[in-house]
Fold these 2 entries.
Entry 1:
Amino acid sequence: MHAIGIDIGGTKVAGALVDEAGAIHRLERRPTPAGDPAAILDVVVELIRELSDGHDIVAAGVAAAGFIDVTQSLVYYAPNINWRGEPLRELLEARLPGLDITVDNDANAAGWAEYRFGAGRGTTDMTMLTIGTGVGGAIVSGGQLFRGGFGAAGEIGHLRVVPNGHPCGCGQKGCIEQYGSGRALLRFANEIADAGGIGRELDIARTANGGTLDGAIVSELIQLTDAGALAALHELGDWLGQACASIGAVLDPQVFVFGGGVAVAGDLLLDPIRAAYLAHLPARGFHPEPVFAVAELVNDAGVVGAADLARIHARRS
Amino acid sequence: MHAIGIDIGGTKVAGALVDEAGAIHRLERRPTPAGDPAAILDVVVELIRELSDGHDIVAAGVAAAGFIDVTQSLVYYAPNINWRGEPLRELLEARLPGLDITVDNDANAAGWAEYRFGAGRGTTDMTMLTIGTGVGGAIVSGGQLFRGGFGAAGEIGHLRVVPNGHPCGCGQKGCIEQYGSGRALLRFANEIADAGGIGRELDIARTANGGTLDGAIVSELIQLTDAGALAALHELGDWLGQACASIGAVLDPQVFVFGGGVAVAGDLLLDPIRAAYLAHLPARGFHPEPVFAVAELVNDAGVVGAADLARIHARRS
């Protein structure tokens, strides 16, 4: 049976018709009417109606950044959409009679897709880190998505790695998001460019781009194996590996999966992560070691995971 | 139906006959034949036989410090007992025919007992920290003990809180065990005693004890509300609360439970934990806050939890 997955991002809303094997049969994208919650709701309703057309759909899942309650109904807080305590499921079910609607955190939806159909398949316990502007997290344990007591588990980006460290958008300091995100990679790259030496190519590219480095420039230099760009990536991987040693002590996953734009670097990212993980692993040598892998579904993981979580919910209820 | 719980500690082996409500009907203790794995096994077999006598027992659970595999059978590594890859369930079932034997980490067993019969009852998601010589951890999620992919989850004591921090027995540096344990409390108390001022009473007590502070002395001064001892406890609680802010971002429990000897301080410990948690909470104000509580079962939690986990396993198999 097909289900619909919707992923509300900061710039676009994606919607897909997804089958039970996680394959996308139709994919639509609309610009996000940012700052206008009612208009966003309209876009979601319209996408679900359009994608359902001609299909026997019973469930649709909506993913968004923010805190979602444990019953998959209520958006406590969605920073991009200005929702506070929004009863999203109720609002959508009123406008889409007969459909079972669920709401999930976007990183959880993407993680669930990787667990079911991507780099985590075949395991029971997976931890996923999505390296975007920030660092998103998702935890699967015993084959279940780990939601926590209030639905807000898996906010791994806000694990503190440095007391009084770099300020974070969450209001705290020293979160791994400030050392392991795409934004952190740019900070490291700028520092290396400033220092000269191996940072020369980064500095030249920065000057050519009007004095600013962006993700595309750094990624391209990484692909060209520029020493400065690789040093920035290594610093990122080193922090992520250190964080994984702590996370592993608590969560003990069989596999760590890394998603987001930076993950296309593959082993160039995974190698320093593995090395730092092993160097910082408590009681090293006394228990099996996890696998480190990059995500396989990349951009579509959110819609695929949201659809699958909705299908599971509809079956249970 | 009654079950038997065994808790193998560094100095004693405790065994109990436990009913389905978690009540202990008989409790026995033997000295641990430390450094002699075969003799420890004999003590465990003897205790189980003795406690079973005259009762219709189908299950016995054994708890020990260390890494236990996810099938509750194998001790990968038990630092106190010199077990490495010990097939403990198989060895015990061979000597105790008809009994369903399970093996669990001691902190997990104690945490499970608190969840079922103590400070965590009535919740679905609990995180427990046991403040002893080290810091033990246990996680319950969705009403299930969180074992992880290899059975080693919940080693919260080895969450790193300070890069290049205080050396830890696990081979790493900066683990919360070095800032939130009974041993850390003594270090803080010694530092305060060295500094004079409010440390005067601690210094006097230390001198009277032959130059060494111990847990009993510091606890007594805490009960007497000595300013130096309270400052040491406050420092401990401050670190624990900071760690809980990170742990909460990942695990999102409804309740944090604190066990171990230091927890008898009650609100004197919980108040600084709560204050530091709130001060370090990411995105404060946007989702419900957990409860902070001290453990209720104290010394007997290990045997009660081991018995209950064995009963659950026997029912499933």
Note: Residues 125 and 173 of chain A are 29 Å apart (CA to CA).
Entry 2:
Amino acid sequence: MNIKVKWLKNQLANLKLDGMIITNPVNIMYLTGISEEGTLIITKRENIFITDGRYIESVNSKLTIEDEIVVYNSKELDKYDYENIFTMDDNVGFEENYVTYENYKKYLHTYRVNLIETEGMLENQRVIKEEEELECIKKACEITDKSFEYIIKNIEEGMTEKEIAFEIQKFMIKNGADGLAFDLIVASGENSSKPHAVPTDRAVRSGDIIQFDIGCKYKGFCSDLSRVVFMGRIEPEYKEIYDFVLNEQKRIINEFKDGANIRTVIKNIEEEYKAKNFSVAHAFGHGVGLEIHELPRLQAKTDNILKENSVIAIEPGVYIPGRFGIRIEDTFKINKMSCESLTKCTKNYVII
Amino acid sequence: MNIKVKWLKNQLANLKLDGMIITNPVNIMYLTGISEEGTLIITKRENIFITDGRYIESVNSKLTIEDEIVVYNSKELDKYDYENIFTMDDNVGFEENYVTYENYKKYLHTYRVNLIETEGMLENQRVIKEEEELECIKKACEITDKSFEYIIKNIEEGMTEKEIAFEIQKFMIKNGADGLAFDLIVASGENSSKPHAVPTDRAVRSGDIIQFDIGCKYKGFCSDLSRVVFMGRIEPEYKEIYDFVLNEQKRIINEFKDGANIRTVIKNIEEEYKAKNFSVAHAFGHGVGLEIHELPRLQAKTDNILKENSVIAIEPGVYIPGRFGIRIEDTFKINKMSCESLTKCTKNYVII
């Protein structure tokens, strides 16, 4: 049996649960490598993946006998088959943060068990990355770095944000990415003031800030990188904000390592923002893995201790509505004594 | 007040509900045009949109006084503000098909009301398109048609599936699309046998089938088009399947109009598939609108009456595992007496 499913079975035993129903595709991918639609069911006796005719062939081609996962076609299962997966009165875990209220009720009816909340058990486990997961994230970061280096050599005045975003995407895919980690952001001039800007037909011109927020996927794992470049020249005001943001990122990096309390660090950063009258509406970062936003949360609300081998994006930014914004972001791995940048492209002023 | 919110308030009154909490972003977009993150709350007294600091500015810029929607910053609301939105003992609708079990419990705690399931009320209403929604879908279909016509003139032997998919995407965006309706499918040779193929580095070559499944968004509304083209020549076997699929699509089109029962039509088509020993694992179509897959479902399981001004994609296909597949798909508007194709590009054999 693969080590992650084995881990899960141990967890369930500790929690006195008789099994678990897993439907969040990201968690299924995490546990089994299966990316096809379906439901993963862990019982005391066996591990089952229920899918349909479209996917049987490709799921079976991915699994080996050592996975100990039996694949079923949902069309071949009837009411009684479902009722017999578990024993009546079994306590079965489910993903209360993924399953809709409607499906919760359907599960009760289908499986005839007691459904027990698992409190984000799988999402919490995903925080700590295995060696091979880290390798995928590193590769995604490497492709992202290269795509940034490529684009800053190829931007010309008059290109639109959309065109620039395309060139980045094309470069990423050509260089081995499975796809994008999210819709790429290329925001120029006043558009940069919106943290979630969508590329427009605005052409870049001299004097512009261009904000990039880009990332790709490699074997399912994400990268996240934000950089700002300047067209032709840097206004002194831009420089000032750039230095502030870069400095805040450095301050976070210096504090982050295994055992650090995210709350304390972020609280201090928020104080400095407030002293300058900058908004703290936008988060300072997030975990990165199979999802572009996953645990841990980088917020000052609750205590949250960083753990070795977790991966996070740290992205302080300053946004001045209607004028401009500057965000600097890298993807980091948390080490025993440090916070190691997996994205490595330059943070010097880039003027093109 | 906008007519959709007015409609919803009437519905809630008919159902003896005192309000509704709406969190599905597609439903919020449908009702209000707001695409920013947040929660829309309808009470007897007022309509509220709760968002955060990142979005206040852009939401307010979209709304007019006639919308009668009050925008709040969630950071400025405390526990008691939330409890006072409704009156205790109010019966409040929620989206049980969207809200997770975890959030269901949070809502109970936050709003202190009785939460009542609304049985997909909003999704069912979205089936019937307004005139201006139809205009957006038509425009999305027009861009998609053009992108197909463009790509068949520009494919050359040796281009990879990924490269071809890029060119289509680029053309769509250049020609006014907001973005893609879904990850485009370009699947050549044996890859075409997978209905959900992802573009690969396989280069197209003489004798290949190339399966396209492409669509874009215009002002949030989707289009969906599938075509097959042949590189260099058509194998007789391909021709036979192509004709069968095209004929099945025609048979569906001939039956579909206001008042037709989807179940009956699809059942007949499934019989013909079974007579030829073709799999019916893949659905024959789906509703299209703000989402690429929405109601109605095109399946033979339950009675389902087609309604005027709904929009559906009809996509029969035949998939021969490990060898090839052929799917033909168009986006249609259901009229009183007909099924009108909104995508219009050729369905003759295309050899390139």
Note: The mean pLDDT of chain B is 95.
